[in-house]
Amino acid sequence: MRIVLALPAPLASVSGGYGYDRRILAGLRELGHEVRVEEMEGRHPLPDTAAEAAARRVLDELVPEEVLVVDGLGLPAFAPLGDALAQRRVVGLIHHPTALETGFSEADRTALRGREQALFPILSRLITTSRLTATRLEPEFGVNPTRIGTVEPGTDEAPRAAGSGGPGCSILSVGALVPRKGYDVLLRALGRLTDIPWSLTIVGGARDPKHARELQTLTEELGIAQRVTFAGEVDGAALEMQYHRADLFALASWWEGYGMAVAEALARGLPLAITEGGALADLAPRDGAVICAPGDHNSLSRAMRRPIYDPHLRRLMSDAAWRAGQALPRWSDRAVAFAAEIEAAHAA
Fold first, then answer.
1. Residue 177 and residue 180: Cα distance in Å, rounded?
2. Which of 255 and 222 is assigned the larger pLDDT?
3. Residue 230 has what pLDDT?
4. What rounded mean pLDDT belongs to the chain?
5. Interatomic CA distance for residues 115 and 121, integer angstroms
6. Whether the Cβ atoms of residue 130 and residue 152 lie closer than 8 Å to each other
7. How many CB atoms neighbour CB 311 within 10 A?
């Protein structure tokens, strides 16, 4: 097949969604498919005129033999082009609907929902990255369930994390600095645990600079700034080393369509401290994780205290996490499944 993937620039962004896109692209090319990437300029997912102009250029430059797949973060920019999307049998790649993103005003969320409710039903197929996201598309966005497929992210074989070696518990959290990730909740939870030794490293780009500054200020207000490192965007061997030296992985998201960073932690046998936001609770083994409601920093704090304090408990949780991680899908078969979804879109 000749496939075009359109997404907001840059493709090199460090996030779970962009990481998924890069791995799928590489896998499709290894399978022999011809793949072209369109990196769209402008503001996304709330599109400005530059974003909508970029969407028009993507459609204008398509040749008849090409299949267009649009990452959901860029789909709202195509809202004025619905008829053309339907005629070209365009496929949507939905990590999670942008209308479910926290950090937007109610007016902006309503606008995004309106665009997605108009766009999703007319696409030839929607490929989601989790079954949970798939279940929400029919009741909330009016999508025919026969047009929905799921290709969950994969993991690579990885060595089991060695841990920090102490003293204290080294906690890792990975994800962009945006409100949906709940870093303020995690920081408030840890701010109640200053009587026990721990350190936290947050790996993720400042996608929302204002929110990133607020998080830094919060660490100072809580008196934990010396324990918290904002590492910024890290990938490749440097990110691998962060996982390898961690003792506990934490994520306090309000919502995750899948939770790639959690899957990567499991693949390395890291015990988890997470919220049940979106698909996270389905991904985590109960004997390898402590799980709390999104937004409840008091409960998260109480749940984290013992695994932070007790190395023996962490070892037992790590064993369970390692077993669960070895059963996760591998990237080696994800591109095959993704290509099959595209073929299904054009066979219907």
1. 8
2. 222
3. 97
4. 94
5. 11
6. yes
7. 12
Q: How far apart are CA 163 and CA 150, in angstroms?
A: 34
C-alpha angle 74-77-78 in degrees, rounded to nearest 5: 100
Q: Tokens 């959290």 label which residue?
A: 173
Give the pairing of strands 2-8 and 34-40: parallel
Report whether pLDDT(348) > 70.
Answer: no
Largest CA distance in the chain: 64
Mean pLDDT of 34-40: 97
Q: Name residue, tokens 């097949």.
A: 1
Beta strands 272-275 and 248-251, pairing class: parallel
What pLDDT, on a 0 to 100 scale, did the predictor assign at position 281?
A: 84
**Residues 59-77, mean pLDDT to the nearest whole number:** 96
Q: b/e string for 146-170 if b means 16 or more Cβ within 10 A?
A: ebbbbbbbbbeeeebbebbeeeebb
Q: What is the C-alpha separation between 299 and 264, in angstroms, rounded?
A: 25
Strand residue runs (E) in the chain: 2-8, 34-40, 66-71, 91-94, 125-128, 148-150, 169-174, 198-203, 228-232, 248-251, 272-275, 289-292
62 CB-near residues (< 8 Å, 6+ apart): 4, 68, 88
Q: For tokens 């985590």, what's the residue?
A: 284
Residues 285 and 288: their CA atoms lie apart, in Å, by: 5
**pLDDT, tens digit, 9 for 90 and up, residues 87-144:** 999 999 999 899 887 778 899 999 999 999 999 999 999 999 999 899 999 999 999 9
Instruction: Measure the CA–CA gap between 26 and 34, rounded to whole angstroms.
Output: 11
d(C-alpha 136, C-alpha 97), whole Å: 9
> What is the model's pLDDT at position 305?
98
Question: Is residue 71's pLDDT more than 90?
Answer: yes
Residue 155 carries which DSSP code? Answer: B
User: Which tokens hold the place of 109?
Assistant: 């969320």
Contact indicator for 283, 263 with CB cutoff of 8 Å: yes
